[in-house]
Amino acid sequence: MSAITSYSMTGNAYIDGVLGNFKWASNNISYSFPANGSYYGTNYANAENVTNFGTLSGVQQTMAREALRIYSTVANLTFTQLDETMSQHADLRYGQSDRTPSAWAYEPSTRGEGGDVWFNRSIGYFVDPVKGGYAYQVFLHETGHALGLDHPHQGNVMPIDRDSLEYSIMSYRSYKGGSETSGFTNEAWGYDQSLMMYDIAAVQQMYGANYATNSGNTSYSWSPTTGEMFVNGAGQGRPGDNKIFLTVWDGGGTDTYDFSNYAGGLKIDLRPGEWTTTSAGQLARLKSDGSQTAVGNIANALLHQGDTRALIENAIGGSGNNTMTGNDGINLLKGGAGSDKLYGLAGNDILDGGLGADTFYGGAGADIFDYNSTKDSLSSSRDTIQDFLRGTDRIDLRSIDASTKSSGNQAFSFIGSKSFAGHAGELNFVSGVLSGDVNGDRTADFRIKIAVSSLATGDFYL
Description:
single chain, mainly beta, Collagenase (Catalytic Domain), Alkaline Protease, subunit P, domain 1, 2 domains, 9-stranded mixed β-sheet, 4 helices, 10% helix, repeat, calcium ion binding, MetalloPept_cat_dom_sf, metalloendopeptidase activity
């Protein structure tokens, strides 16, 4: 068995709320699936090893390895399986026993039971864990204890407004304000599908953050019909029902949330600790009657010690009316069809509303408002740029051919507040509206409302 050590708290009451007292001193942790209760020794802990002891089934062992893999994707942890014997003992040992009414685990310690995880053998809850179900959540929860995580309502108590499964897999509360004594109230497939934001932050405080996970340019997408997550097109396993309830940790690169396969309106938020909602139907019911649903579908992990490598930079909306919010990085927000609202916030962002009457708020930084077609802002459904900063922001029209009368892609000519003179490619700004004529008929082929009193050629990429 490895040594244990204490560590410092973060000073954040929400993260510290799931931190225990000790962690394993080594980041390379061993685990085993003992085949015999005698391997635990005599006078063991609460006599789990002699109360209808059983080794984990093949399916359960696979789930335990999956739980360990999930922890290793967010923290600097490696796990090595040992063959448990009378003389060789792993740090984490997984077993079954009827001594526990459901499941429990022991925190890291130098006692013989330190790091041991137990599941009830007879009640049948843990026979076949599936993502989104109770058993899946419990495997992650108990493994968390074995690594040093604690319940939010014990020890360093987490503020009540975040003590729920929405924020920590270690919580006893299904939803904010729910009971921590009467048991979970979730629908059958309405449990966490991953570690949640404070679990990730806490285990990273203990063992460091793993920035090798999806450290390249990664695309994340989800199925509107099954809830399955895809990473660079590769399926990550279907949940038990069409629900999405998870937190994304990403180690680096320029990354994208791609919701182009969604038809309904989405609420997309790229800020650390914030949530994206794909649809009401995919929200986990935290009370089975539907009176309490999760705050969102997809949460962004918190930054570890302010390291921005974990940011998700880009988002692609669906064909509905989307609300998209960036973060402090350099974001590319693409609204798609529908009347979208795009908020760039800080950073030098690119905002592309696509079709529909879109509204833009670039925020701080040198932002680009990108147009690819005259159909992106028709006279009848024109876009609005609410906070254009002259001399800093730019309106990019380079993808639009300014003249349908000439071959190739022609550049626009900005004529200020003058009226169109019948020359294809003219661009003017009158009474707060930018208009472009691409065929020389003196009629605007697209119009964009901009909340400024004047514009100059330098405000465009023509």
